[in-house]
Amino acid sequence: MAQFSARDLSKQVQSSPSRSEAARELSPIAKLIAAQPVPASISQVVLAGMLRLAEFLSIAALGLAIYLVYVRDTGELFEYLVAIGGLSLAAVLTFQWLELYDIAALRTRVSQLSRISVAWTGVFLAAFAVSFFAKLDGSFSRFWAASWFSFGLFMLYFGRLIVSSLVRKWTREGRLIRRTVVVGGGHAGEALIDALNAQTDSDLQICGFFDDRSDDRSQPELAGVPKLGNVDDLVEFARRTRLDLLLVSLPITAEERVLQMVRKLWVLPVDLRLAAHMSRLRFRPRAYSYIGNVPVLDVFDRPLADWNVVLKAMFDRLLGTLMLIAFAPVMALVALAIKLDSRGPVFFKQKRYGFNNELIEVYKFRSMYVDKTDAHAAKLVTKNDPRVTRVGRIIRKTSLDELPQLVNVAIKGNLSLVGPRPHALQAKAANRLYDEVVDGYFARHRVKPGITGWAQVNGWRGETDTPEKIQRRVEHDLYYIENWSVLFDLYILAKTPFALLKSESAF
Q1: Which of 111, 256, 329, 444 is the most buried (most CB within 10 A)?
Q2: CB neighbour class for 47 (10 Å; exposed up to 12, middle 13-18, buried from 19)
Q3: Do residues 237 and 28 make contact, with C-beta atoms less than 8 angstroms apart?
Q4: Are strands 221-222 and 225-229 parallel, antiparallel or unpaired?
Q5: What pLDDT does 278 receive?
Q6: CATH of segment(s) 6-36+177-300
Q7: Residue 377 — pLDDT band, cuts 50, 70, 90?
Q8: CA angle 251, 257, 260 (to 5 degrees)
Q9: pLDDT over threshold 60, residue 288
Q10: At what angle do helices 231-240 and 255-265 cross, to 10 degrees?
Q11: 379-385 — which CB contacts under 8 Å span 24+ positions?
Q12: C-alpha 105: how far from its chain's center?
């Protein structure tokens, strides 16, 4: 099964009746689970990557430090640097080969330390063999090698004990657990939950299951896991609590039911997998990924995960801070102009939808008269709008009113520099709320919103007086989400000043 694309789904759902994502009433048990405090997750991929880097650098630093203290005057630096780099890399690769960076291994202590001992000793024995056969054994200090081996093993023990304690603590807190729900009940759902629960060292926490079948055909509990509602309830449930993985237990042959379900769930920033453990339809082994021993087909991945989240966060915070400093004089002049032009505060705060429909508060320079501000954007700003001040017309036309959102990016962290624009709660196109005009509209909230975006630099900014305009915005937003990269963000930022020069639709 090929992955569904957001573009394909958006085309399919446009012909179906629009569905506003108004908050639904959840069942008591779903409310209880959603209300429980859940800490932010830690990516296992990022944790393992950071540990690899830390061990490589610490092993190399130890080897270099011993050389500088004891061998500097008697050995060639270049030869030692090659040896230090080669052995450090070989050690990390050996640890990786022995699966010593897996979370299951990091939770253990005795087993982990014994395997570290074997790996570290093996690397040095291999290095001695290479040195002997290459007739390099006289080129390196035996004291240096023995010291590096001994202190290195002690350092690795100490570091791994600290990491093991942290991993156990984070596991207890639920930060290394993938919060999971099963979609679909009956025999298939029960078999899937049993298969997942039978796994040792599983990183899944099954919160419940959701089933669209009527209550008389759907059990209130499967394998000890409670039913939390139907698929429409699942969307609301995922807005209220952290979910990492959705496992659909419907048979692959039920294509229409699977499509209907995916059309509802694609708006969520989670991984979506179709369980294939009971299907008689078999693909090549490479077509499957696995959750433990359970074969699954990848339907959707969250748009940004693991290192991509780290890269985008670092990009936003670093560049956002630099831009905030660079634009500080301009912001000061704009603030002074607003203060001189009309009474009232300089800044205007507005509630908007952020990542996963979370309500956030964004900052703008006030561009309207204080008694005519529209906190919910219930009425679109039009050309020559009497609510807009003289300075307001200028800063709206040039988008200078958006500059305070750099505070949201650099300090609060709830906006990105680049992403789908955070629309106001009551923003409308042709007197209809955006999510009523574009079905699947909330799929653009699978990433953080941004100050500028792909839609804006392609001319889709300003007034949205027709359904077609907001439709085109959403199409560009979904394209950005599917094709994100740091280079794409840089390209959009570079195009933004030129896009601001074409401001015919910005009032």
Answers
A1: 444
A2: buried
A3: no
A4: antiparallel
A5: 62
A6: 3.40.50.720
A7: low
A8: 135
A9: yes
A10: 30
A11: 380/427, 380/428, 380/463, 380/464, 380/465, 381/463, 381/507, 382/463, 382/465, 382/507, 383/507, 384/507, 385/507
A12: 25
For residues 3 and 12, give the distance between their C-alpha atoms in angstroms, rounded to a whole number. 15
Model confidence pLDDT, tens digit, residues 181-240: 998 888 888 888 888 888 877 888 899 999 887 666 667 888 888 999 888 889 889 988
Q: What is the mean pLDDT of the chain?
A: 84
Token pair, residue 205, equals: 């926490």
How confident is the model over 142-188, as pLDDT tens digits? 889 999 999 999 999 999 999 999 999 998 888 998 999 998 888 88
For residue 346, the 8-state DSSP code is: S
Distances (CA, A) of 262 to 11, 206, 255: 13, 20, 10
**Contacts of 93 by beta carbon, 8 Å cutoff, 6+ apart:** none
pLDDT digit string (tens) for 45-92? 999 999 999 999 999 999 999 999 888 766 688 888 999 999 999 999
Angle 43-48-54 (CA atoms, 0-180°, nearest 5)? 125
Q: Are 90 and 122 in contact (CB under 8 A)?
A: no
Once rounded to an integer, what is the mean pLDDT over residues 276-292?
Answer: 68
Q: What is the pTM of this model?
A: 0.81
pLDDT of residue 467: 77
**Statement: residue 20 has pLDDT above 50:** no
Angle at 178 between CA 172 and CA 181, to 5 degrees: 120
Domain limits of the chain? 6-36+177-300, 44-173, 307-501
Separation CA 241–CA 244 (nearest Å): 10
Q: Please name the amino acid found at residue 398.
A: T
Buried b (16+ CB within 10 A) or exposed e, 167-179: beebbeebbbbbb
Pairwise CA distance, residues 172 & 34, whole Å: 18
Task: Report the distance separating Cα 41 and Cα 170, nearest Å.
Answer: 9
Contact 250, 191 (CB under 8 A): no
CA distance 112 to 257: 45
Give the span between the Cα atoms of 273 and 256, in whole angstroms. 16
Query: How do beta strands 347-353 and 428-429 pair?
Result: unpaired
Q: Give the contacts of 289 (CB within 8 A, at least 6 positions apart).
A: 273, 295, 296, 297, 298
